[in-house]
Amino acid sequence: MAESSTSTSAAPVQPEGTYSLEQMKEHNTRESLWMLLHDKVYDITAFMDEHPGGDEVLIEEAGRDATEAFEDVGHSDEAREMLPKMLLGDFYGEKKSKSKKSLTSADGSSTSSGFPIWVVPVALVAAFLAWRVFLA
Known about the structure:
By secondary structure, the protein is α+β, with helices and mostly antiparallel strands. The chain contains five helices and five strands; from the N terminus they run E-H-E-E-E-H-H-H-E-H.
């Protein structure tokens, strides 16, 4: 009896016309710049010189998911209408979170080092009160 050579743990096949994070990371230079926005992959290389914010901000987000940065800036409808001309295809795979972002609790009360933000204003108020008491 012949044994089957098929494996049940085969890696999923990437659909044609889709791009993975690994492929995107290969295009993070001024010569070839790809970006992920809303699960779509765009080649923005030709647009870099026209970008009103300069090419530095594009290069910083190149080769990864730039959706949050794109939305934070509040791009115009005109900017959004330009995107289809640069579309390469859909994104395939898992997005990894950015390591640059600071970690915050649900109420946004700590920085990336875990230092509570509220300590600074409390310390300033305490210093002011101590100064007033000292002068009295």
